[in-house]
Specification:
It is a single chain. The protein has two domains: 105 residues, Phosphorylase Kinase, domain 1 (2-Layer Sandwich), CATH 3.30.200; 210 residues, Alpha-Beta Complex (Aminoglycoside 3'-phosphotransferase, Chain: A, domain 2), CATH 3.90.1200. It has twelve helices and ten strands. Strands 1-2-3-5-4 form a five-stranded antiparallel β-sheet. The longest helix is centred in the last third of the chain and has 26 residues. Helix 10 runs antiparallel to helix 12. With 330 residues, it is an alpha+beta fold. It is globular.
Length: 330
């Protein structure tokens, strides 16, 4: 069945929406994205392919984070910075057919920040968003909070990446082999370093806050206000989980000044920063390897390869980036 026909049927049966227009939009790595219109409203629809193995983690997260985002929208000052979820007629967070899972939310008129640098005012807004999110951790209802993932510094994916490097990479003479092979030694080194950091962090005590965990520029949209989108990765974690995406940017000092208007932050944990920096890069590398060699990607092969090359290069500069982070706090 053609995807737009599926969507039209799903919207009618589950939301009572008679779609007059269904237009595919550029999406992320986890799902297809569509702008849907009826006679009076616009909606944003994410469509996850159930047959893609890596989609399962994002599908499983929907029932955990959607009620949380809805609560934040109605009970905190984040209301104007979130996209409100839309529930089905039976008050479910999602619906599905035999091939796809569908997630509907209000449509936000605006422009994705993407590759552009944040302006000083956008930095101020982002600091407010993350500061309020972290500050409101204590106000979230217990039943809602206990549904959220709690950071355990697990790195199980590293076993799969390590095994692939040693047993599978060279089995196919393709562009992936050509790109990854020169980095195998450094990848093993970083996997071992990440394991060391994970064990060190497990032995420490931490203050956990509600963390978006993916607040990069492709998940930021400028509309009437700055909006933070895509909450699949939300969890309870140290503040460094969210701050790592900002701390290496040119605006880090301005961000921290603004952030501290909402949330105390006096004792940065450099091991946690390095852990989250390395984990993100190695996870991305592993996801793109799986897309290219096993599962197929929602993006073109060319785009996926460029992202893989960039992450491999970044992974090789961890020491340089740690020194850069230290300078922010000295």
């Amino acid at each position: 069945m053609e995807i737009n026909t599926r969507i039209s049927t799903i919207l009618k049966d589950n939301y009572g929406i008679d779609a007059t227009s269904i237009e595919q939009r550029p999406g992320g790595w986890s799902a297809l994205a569509f702008l849907v219109e009826d006679k009076s409203n616009k909606y944003f629809l994410k469509v996850y392919n159930k047959n893609k193995p890596s989609s399962s983690q994002w599908i499983d997260a929907i029932d955990r984070y959607t009620p949380l985002v809805n609560w934040l929208h109605h009970h905190t000052d984040l209301q104007n910075h979130l996209s409100k979820p839309i529930f089905t007629k039976s008050q479910r967070n999602q619906c599905e057919d035999e091939q796809y899972v569908y997630l509907l939310s209000e449509y936000i008129e605006g422009t994705t920040i993407g590759e552009k640098q944040l302006s000083p005012n956008q930095v101020k807004e982002l600091a407010k968003i993350l500061g309020l999110l972290h500050k409101n951790t204590s106000t979230i209802p217990h039943e809602l909070k206990k549904q959220q993932v709690k950071e355990r510094f697990d790195i199980e994916f590293c076993e799969d990446l390590f095994s692939f490097i040693h047993h599978d990479l060279a089995n196919t003479n393709d562009i992936l082999l050509e790109i990854v092979e020169p980095y195998t030694e450094i990848l093993v080194e970083k996997i071992n370093r990440l394991g060391y950091l994970a064990n060190a962090l497990k032995s420490k005590s931490h203050m956990f806050v509600l963390s978006h965990s993916d607040a990069h520029n492709w998940n930021l949209m400028q509309g009437q206000n700055l909006m933070l989108l895509d909450w699949e990765c939300v969890k309870l974690a140290p503040q460094e989980q969210d701050l790592i995406l900002i701390i290496t940017e040119p605006y880090a000092e301005q961000f921290l000044t603004e952030y501290r208007n909402y949330m105390s932050y006096e004792n940065p944990d450099m091991d946690a920063f390095e852990f989250y920096f390395l984990k993100r890069n190695l996870e991305d590398i592993w996801e793109w390897i799986k897309d290219l060699r096993f599962e197929g990607s929602l993006k073109s092969e060319e785009v996926t390869l460029e992202h893989l090359k960039s992450s491999l290069d970044t992974c090789s500069r961890t020491e340089e980036i740690r020194k850069k982070m230290l300078k922010v706090f000295n």
